[in-house]
Amino acid sequence: MDLSELDRDSTGRCRLNSPVPAVCRKEPCVLGVDEAGRGPVLGPMVYAICYCPLSRLADLEALKVADSKTLSESERDRLFVKIEEDGDFVGWALDVLSPNLISTSMLGRVKYNLNSLSHDTATGLVQYALDQGVKVAQVFVDTVGPPETYQERLQECFPGIEVTVKAKADALYPVVSAASICAKVARDQAVKNWHFVETLQDLDADYGSGYPNDPKTKAWLRKHVEPVFGFPQFVRFSWRTAQSILEKEAEGVLWEDSATGHQEGPGRIMSYFSKGPQTHPHLPHRYFQERGLESATTL
């Protein structure tokens, strides 16, 4: 699996996909959706789809795919190779969402929580398959949040497709199991071969499971937090575990445009347009200060 695009830019997202089997453009297909790496504080989250014709579903089941969490890394790698070898009737695609993208989305001025990001990514992958000409007839999804709400949303997006959203879908439907294997193999490879753009002293690659409650992961976070610049981009800095370590180990920051001096309150909104002296003086935004712009009292 070629993750070189992620190596070149580990701040956003990248999409990988197999060639679309010709039969998938001719026959009705079933498509499964699953993710890997939703909970860890380290590394990317990967969403994947896998699809095949309904007429070949038994052949996909014969591969003995299973929920990726129940398989060893070597078993997942072996099954992904078999999925690739059956590329004449099985296709896949995935989105790798970097830790930086996840955290900046969650902490932006307009909040974009992990559930919404997950839903939109899954929807985008289904739409991608349709755009590639795959004749999707059925979609099975491992739920994020309440399955009824998620299913209703997907059904509205794809009214001509039969959509099923269930908890533990990766253990119930082989096509979702196949998607979970694709997602987990991609995440494992991304984490193992992560390209650190930061210069880290005594980089320790043994960071445990990457989950917030893992003592080894917490120790790695404490070791590699920089007092001023925080964590490397490998870390989801929006996770509470990372924030707690930042609060204890890093320096406090006073932003340039922070309010200064004694202020009792902002006052009435019309006071800002008054010709007389302002009761509550305030500094202009840094945009105006940097460009030497001042308010005009007369036109």
TrEMBL record:
<feature type="binding site">
    <location>
        <position position="142"/>
    </location>
    <ligand>
        <name>a divalent metal cation</name>
    </ligand>
</feature>
<dbReference type="GO" id="GO:0006298">
    <property type="term" value="P:mismatch repair"/>
</dbReference>
<protein>
    <recommendedName>
        <fullName>Ribonuclease</fullName>
        <ecNumber>3.1.26.4</ecNumber>
    </recommendedName>
</protein>
<keyword id="KW-0255">Endonuclease</keyword>
<dbReference type="InterPro" id="IPR024567">
    <property type="entry name" value="RNase_HII/HIII_dom"/>
</dbReference>
<keyword id="KW-0540">Nuclease</keyword>
<dbReference type="InterPro" id="IPR001352">
    <property type="entry name" value="RNase_HII/HIII"/>
</dbReference>
<keyword id="KW-0378">Hydrolase</keyword>
<dbReference type="InterPro" id="IPR004649">
    <property type="entry name" value="RNase_H2_suA"/>
</dbReference>
<comment type="function">
    <text>Endonuclease that specifically degrades the RNA of RNA-DNA hybrids.</text>
</comment>
<dbReference type="InterPro" id="IPR036397">
    <property type="entry name" value="RNaseH_sf"/>
</dbReference>
<dbReference type="InterPro" id="IPR023160">
    <property type="entry name" value="RNase_HII_hlx-loop-hlx_cap_dom"/>
</dbReference>
<comment type="function">
    <text>Catalytic subunit of RNase HII, an endonuclease that specifically degrades the RNA of RNA:DNA hybrids. Participates in DNA replication, possibly by mediating the removal of lagging-strand Okazaki fragment RNA primers during DNA replication. Mediates the excision of single ribonucleotides from DNA:RNA duplexes.</text>
</comment>
<dbReference type="Pfam" id="PF01351">
    <property type="entry name" value="RNase_HII"/>
</dbReference>
<dbReference type="GO" id="GO:0004523">
    <property type="term" value="F:RNA-DNA hybrid ribonuclease activity"/>
</dbReference>
<comment type="similarity">
    <text>Belongs to the RNase HII family. Eukaryotic subfamily.</text>
</comment>
<feature type="domain" description="RNase H type-2">
    <location>
        <begin position="28"/>
        <end position="251"/>
    </location>
</feature>
<dbReference type="GO" id="GO:0043137">
    <property type="term" value="P:DNA replication, removal of RNA primer"/>
</dbReference>
<comment type="subunit">
    <text>The RNase H2 complex is a heterotrimer composed of the catalytic subunit RNASEH2A and the non-catalytic subunits RNASEH2B and RNASEH2C.</text>
</comment>
<dbReference type="InterPro" id="IPR012337">
    <property type="entry name" value="RNaseH-like_sf"/>
</dbReference>
<feature type="binding site">
    <location>
        <position position="34"/>
    </location>
    <ligand>
        <name>a divalent metal cation</name>
    </ligand>
</feature>
<keyword id="KW-0479">Metal-binding</keyword>
<feature type="binding site">
    <location>
        <position position="35"/>
    </location>
    <ligand>
        <name>a divalent metal cation</name>
    </ligand>
</feature>
<dbReference type="GO" id="GO:0032299">
    <property type="term" value="C:ribonuclease H2 complex"/>
</dbReference>
<dbReference type="GO" id="GO:0003723">
    <property type="term" value="F:RNA binding"/>
</dbReference>
<dbReference type="GO" id="GO:0046872">
    <property type="term" value="F:metal ion binding"/>
</dbReference>
